[in-house]
TrEMBL record:
Residues 87-108 have a biased composition (Acidic residues). It comes from Pristionchus fissidentatus. This is UBX domain-containing protein. One of its GO terms (biological process) is ERAD pathway. SMART domains: UAS.
Amino acid sequence: QLNGGAEQEAAPPVVQNLAREYEMMEQEEEKEEVEKARRSPLAPVSRTHSNNGGVAVERALAGAGGAPSSRSNSNTGGAPSARMDSDDSDDDYDYAMETQHDEEEDDETVARRLESASNGGGSSSRSNDFGVPLIPTDCDSAVEGTQNFMCVFEARYGSNGRGHMMPPFFIGSLQSAIREAFECPDRPVCERRPLALYIHHDGSIARNVFPQTVMCNEQVLQLLRSQFIVWPWDVTAKENENKLTSWLNECSLYDARPIVSSFLAKIDRFPLLILLSKEGSQLRMIDYLNSNDSADTGMEKLLMCMEAYASCKVSLEKQAQERHEREALRQEQNRELQESLAMDREKKEKQEREIREQKEAEEKAQREKDEKEAHIAALKASLPEEPAEGSADCCSVRFRLPEQGAALRRFSKSSPFSVVLTFLESEGFPVADYRMMNSDFPQKKDVSEWNPKATLADLKWPTREVINVEER
């Protein structure tokens, strides 16, 4: 009840809190006024509140709206008492207790005036107190929009040395914020964090109170900075509202869409802080904060969201560990397979090389054999015919060959010694590899070193001779 019993609709919690603050301020001011009145030439004045506190509430509400405070006394609070020192004391008391006209206002108007008073006065416009929107309608991208949001937010609520109290807003699109929060590209699962969507509307009566008392609260900020990705957006303009609705649909934020729609139907519930987690491939809303929530309530909901996502992270870390183990096993198996294949290739190449070398060796040996046989055939063809046995020009030579027994050949004494050497070579015993020892006694001679052009007669070759062929 206000003004001694007049009924009004209950004000929102934010309004009630501000009303209590202004009530305390009015009480302090009243005490100072009473003290000054006692010291003045006028008679001291005593002002008594009603027991139900209605006058104080009315004074706070009216004072916040810019109107002079209305002071009245209720019968329930007792009659005012004053000590008069002169005949004019009654007039002085009436002057001091003069009641001003009561002004009835609805809750929204009162709250707006309270908020204006808390900001040091200014325009009564709800949607443009600061003149610059958080996100202009001409922003070409989400990156530009979120950058502008952060700059204007800091100018509004991070001034007077409070720049360090800014929330850690993510710069970029909603899709990028989701990826950064729940995927953490190229980083471990432990660095993943839940996502908080901060949706602002300058038409709300709490457009200044909530950012200052909740979003810029030191404990809330510490939690947001260390444990959350915070993506901001402003829906004051219809164009920006449509963009947000479209992005929510594109990102499959099915839990968040009806909440945003309900807040847009009653904008005084803004600002809105939606807390999101992820289970498997599905994004899920854990809870949300609105204009009626205090910093303590916000801390409770943030911690609850952290706990909900922590259980999901345990499962994600387990899955990541299993994937890592499977990948390690796959890599080990692949390494072993590659080593086995390499060994097989090496073995096959070795076999092929050996076969190729063997074939080449055989071909070479055959070629050498053919060449040798051709050479021997040519040598035999070049030998002169044997002279008739018993002729005066004939000498007989018996060759003892290594591992082949003996060979007998008749030569003409007029033939050069090279004929004897050619015969031995035709039998496979070239002079380069073998020596020929005669039968001279006591010391045998190596006749292979004799002059091949000299005739057997010149060399005094005996009619019968035995030559031992030895390997050099």
